[in-house]
Design a protein that fits this description.
Elements lengths: L4 H21 L4 H12 L4 E4 L6 H11 L4 E5 L6 H5 E7 L5 E7 L6 E5 L6 H4 L1 H8 L1 E4 L2 E4 L5 E6 L12 H4 L4 E4 L5 H12 L12 H12 L5 H12 L10 H6 E3 L3 H17 L7 H12 L4 E2 L1 H5 L4 H11 E2 L2 E2 L1
Parallel strand pairs: 1-8, 1-9, 2-5, 5-8
Antiparallel strand pairs: 3-4, 6-7, 10-11, 12-13
Helix pairs in contact: 1-3, 2-12, 9-12, 10-12, 12-13, 13-15
Length: about 325
């Protein structure tokens, strides 16, 4: 199905209304709101990382309410079991006295699932999300069940208090379309947060969209055009994240252990298309690709020992790479 430029503009205006409604309740965090919305439109999952108390959980809950999606929250703890997420089969007695197995759905069967502090659960429990995130199905006792549509996992992670946590394996990190960093509020934002949260005024959120419209938006995102030269730039960017590539920069060769794979390129393209749609365009620009590059790649690159010893972050290397890359070449 093809969409007209007028349809893209109309959907862009509605998405702006969604952002404005979220902004009525959430103070600041514009970048986190934008990238979470990009992930929703691109039909992907997002990992939010930030210190405790910055509103990560409230942000996700607010987005689900404004988009009118069913919401469930899973608090990840070391004693959480996989069946606590997926659900399990239990024996039920019918009215005629016969017994049968009945599947009781877990919290994963919602349209928007908040995996709170995902790195506090054991790898076995974390892996319960893998099939749902990758295939959008859950298999219990050989029976495969489909997830709700649309379906998103938005996970939060605390960058401190690493004692007693289980860092996500690379295979699971790669399932997240983007990794969003949630910053500490400024003085002005802190003042506004206090006014909104410690006073008597309560904010009632409006439902701006619904699941049917979101599914249609996801189809519109797929039809956003990306020119060959824009795609070539994205490919060159991903290739340049590999330290053994002849077309990379000295900083990548010196500080990066592993670069990004094909999923990183897919994430850049999907997020760039979503950003173009939100801005009312049906074609991807170079600015779209540069804007989404860090969230799409920061969790797919691994620093080597020298990079960690130097106190660098992956974003430091990506910033240098983006500065030195011109369209189609590294300088």
């Amino acid at each position: 199905m093809s969409y007209t430029p007028e349809q893209y503009v109309a959907m862009s205006e509605k998405l702006q209304a969604v952002r404005d409604e979220i902004g009525r309740f959430i103070v600041g965090q514009e970048e986190a709101i934008d990238y979470t919305m990009f992930a929703v439109l691109a039909d992907g999952h997002a990992l939010l990382e930030g210190l405790p108390g910055l509103g990560k959980t409230m942000l996700i809950r607010t987005i689900s309410e404004v988009l009118d999606l069913s919401f469930s929250r899973i608090q990840f703890t070391p004693d959480l079991m996989p069946t606590d997420i997926t659900g399990t089969s239990v024996i039920e007695r019918s009215a005629d006295g016969n017994q049968r197995f009945s599947f009781q759905k877990g919290p994963i069967f919602s349209q928007m699932v908040l995996a709170d502090e995902i790195n506090r659960a054991t790898p076995k429990t974390q892996s319960a999300l893998l099939e749902a995130m990758g295939e959008k199905t859950v298999t219990v006792l050989g029976d495969t069940k489909k997830m709700a549509k649309p379906f998103f996992v938005l996970a939060t992670q605390n960058p401190i208090e690493m004692e007693g946590t289980y860092p996500l394996p690379e295979a699971q990190m790669d399932r997240f379309l983007c990794k969003i960093l949630v910053p500490t509020p400024s003085k002005i934002e802190l003042m506004e947060i206090m006014k909104r949260t410690t006073g008597s005024i309560s904010i009632e959120l409006k439902k701006i969209m619904n699941d049917t419209e979101i599914v249609e938006l996801q189809e519109m995102v797929k039809e956003v055009m990306i020119a060959d030269d824009m795609l070539s730039y994205a490919v060159d960017l991903v290739v340049a994240t590999h330290p053994d590539s002849p077309d990379t920069i000295d900083e990548v060769k010196q500080f990066i252990e592993y670069g990004s794979g094909p999923r990183g390129l897919q994430s850049i393209v999907k997020l760039a298309k979503a950003r173009a749609l939100i801005n009312g365009r049906y074609h991807v620009s170079i600015a779209d690709i540069k804007t989404v590059a860090k969230p799409a790649l920061r969790h797919r690159l691994m620093l080597n020992y020298e990079g960690e010893a130097a106190g660098l972050q992956v974003d430091d290397v990506l910033n240098t790479l983006l500065e030195k890359m011109k369209q189609g070449q590294v300088v």
